Amino acid sequence: MLKRLYVDNYRSLVNFELHFSPLTLLTGSNGSGKSSILNIFFALRALLCWLSMDCFSSASQGKRFCLMSQKTMFQFLKFNPG
């Protein structure tokens, strides 16, 4: 489980640290960095997926194939307080 996120100088996030619990909610006014945090998660997910690819070459076809792991990296849950 991801326990902490530290970001420095990304959009409105300067020297920003976020500690996670089993349920973490992002709230705040416009321009406070909520979308920036989500963009960081999507970038991390893309990087982790790329790193988890199992690549191999086919000598008979002269091609390189990559298979992606089926691990869940992040799970975004919809929350409706009402």
Describe the overall structure.
By secondary structure, the protein is of the alpha+beta class. Helix content is 22%, strand content 22%. It is elongated, with a radius of gyration of 18 Å. It starts with a strand and ends in a 15-residue tail after the last strand.
Features:
single chain; 82 residues; alpha+beta; two-stranded antiparallel ribbon; 4 strands; 22% helix; 22% strand; elongated
Task: Summarize the entry for a quick read.
By secondary structure, this protein is α+β, with helices and mostly antiparallel strands. The chain has one helix and four strands.
Percent of residues in helices? 10-25%
- Number of DSSP helical runs: 1
Strand composition percent:
15-25%
Largest sheet: 2 strands, antiparallel
* Shape call: elongated
Strand order in the largest sheet? 1-2
Number of strands: 4
- Structural class label: alpha+beta
Q: Write down the secondary-structure element order.
A: EEHEE
CA distance, first residue to last residue: 28 Å
**Low-pLDDT residue intervals, each spanning 5 or more residues:** none
Overall mean pLDDT stands at: 76
State Rg. 18 Å
Indicate the topology.
Elements: E1 4-7, E2 16-19, H1 34-51, E3 54-58, E4 63-67
Antiparallel strand pairs: 1-2, 3-4
